[in-house]
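User: Please check token order:
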Amino acid sequence: MSPVTFFERVRGALWGIFIADALSMPAHWYYDLNALQRDFGYLTTYQAPKTIHPGSIMSLSNTGGHGRGGQSGHIIGDVINHGKHEAWGKAGVHYHQGMIAGENTLNALCARLVMRSIAAEGGYSTDRFLDDYVRFMTTPGSHNDTYAESFHRDFFSNWDRGVPPAECAGREAHNTATVGGLVMLPPVIIGSMKKGLGGAKRDAAMHLQLTHRSRELARSAAVYTELLFNVMSGEPLQEAALFAAEALNLDLDKLVERDLPDEYVIGRIFGPACYISDALPSILYLAYKYADSFEDAVVANTNSGGENCHRGSALGALLGAANGVSKIPPHFISGLVASHEIHEEIERFIVSVADIRTREL
């Protein structure tokens, strides 16, 4: 079997972000797995969300800023996620109401934005990202998602009050140290590999600071950055995951040897919610267990429920990097709503970072 080339890893990692996100989108934040199976069966293909989400608590979320609260604020609706304010005040509304099978959620769309920014700038630039991020988020019709995580709402609540974009990230709070903060990092890490591991870590940390001010998340992001960097450099995923797990005092060998159902490991031993303290161990567990199969990993993640979209994007990047784009089933790529646009963005991104390696494209 021929070795996976660097640029096959790049393509695999980037496609992995969007595939895992879109696969999980209809089942996002289903904590009742019986309800997930009732609504979708065992998800292996892209599906559209149901009209009613049985576990939705979007109506408890603050439309004027971070966290929970009422719907009196209009950051959602007027500043970002235009026209979506009304949906937040109703019980049972799906977080991704109105999206269609194969469509990506907001954080994955922001990962595309990072790719485009790096390609246009020829490298990672905080100023370029912030300009593009503000323009994208505040432009009506730029995306079709209903929900926006706390960090988006906090950022644009500050921005709407005239705070400079570089200072708009909210302070650490209950909803800050979450796995959603990892979704935009793979393009930054890959785009900064020419700077070595230290440079990639610095750029990833700098990017994270623009949207998430959290020491806990920063520590986890550093572990994830080194893991993806090592896999992109050709280290086998299982070996890299074992090394990363040491930082969390997690024994992946023993855990996998117990042969427990994935939903039990993610739902009971760790936790299926967004908090990085549970999500990163879940990512490492799935990456280690399914290191040789992109499809098995992302399908297992989706059907484990909870915060499967953002957990999935971080996982999909690892599995795509480890196995290369050729090991991703073609229907996962062609079935994405924006498949053609994503393909073009990935290829432009590759051209912009081509000096990382001297191998042929």
